[in-house]
Description:
Number of strands of chain A: 11
Largest sheet of chain B: 6 strands, mixed
Helix content of chain A: under 10%
Number of helices of chain A: 0
Oligomer: heterodimer
Order of helices and strands of chain B: EEEEEEEEEEEE
Number of strands of chain B: 12
Strand content of chain A: over 45%
Helix content of chain B: under 10%
Structural class of chain B: mainly beta
Radius of gyration of chain A: 13 Å
Largest interface: A-B, 28 and 23 residues
Distance between the termini of chain B: 41 Å
Strand content of chain B: over 45%
Radius of gyration of chain B: 13 Å
Distance between the termini of chain A: 33 Å
Shape of chain A: globular
Amino acid sequence: DTAVSQTPKYLVTQMGNDKSxxxxxxxxxxxxxxxxxxxxxxxxxMFSYNNKELIINETVPNRFSPKSPDKAHLNLHINSLELxxxxxxxxxxxxxxxxxxxxxxxxxxxxxV
Amino acid sequence: xxxxxxxxxPVTLSEEAFLTINCTYTATGYPSLFWYVQYPGEGLQLLLxxxxxxxxxxxxxxxxxxxxxxxxxxxxKGSVQVxxxxxxxxxxxxxxxSKLTFGKGITxxxxx
Lengths: 113, 112
């Protein structure tokens, strides 16, 4: 079983649409993350949740809204998609906030046309 | 703030060549250091890590030693294979701060 799973893996959508990416971890971890990888492969954190509570929000447009219904799930909703939102979005989890190892999902390739 | 600097890429090597990918960092406190690998079309995988000075992380023939005096965590492999072709990311994590700070990544291509 995949430890951190994201859906969909690929998503092509038009500008202005609203879309969601779902993430689930079956590791029993307390902390979950969303990272964005741009076209130059640069990785940057977007959000972090610990036990369903938001703990990191890194200067992300408010069109991006994470939601954590329980500590095993962290979904990412994006409103009014723009061309610049095209990227790979990685979900990740770690045992605790200070846990040393962060485990990543396989990524969701979003293309906005 | 925390930052990670990786050598500029891409890097192209012949099979069985020796590999070194440089990584240096600046951080407040005492970070844990990581190398992640991303194979073509795939997600990020943890390759190895070290949590304190002089620790050596190793996995799949790759090694990196945490050097506090030079604030470095260089990745090495004695004999690369075509299957090692991937993007390699150096990263750090400090104290109770939950986020990983990544370097820009470097693309390694290994020729048969």
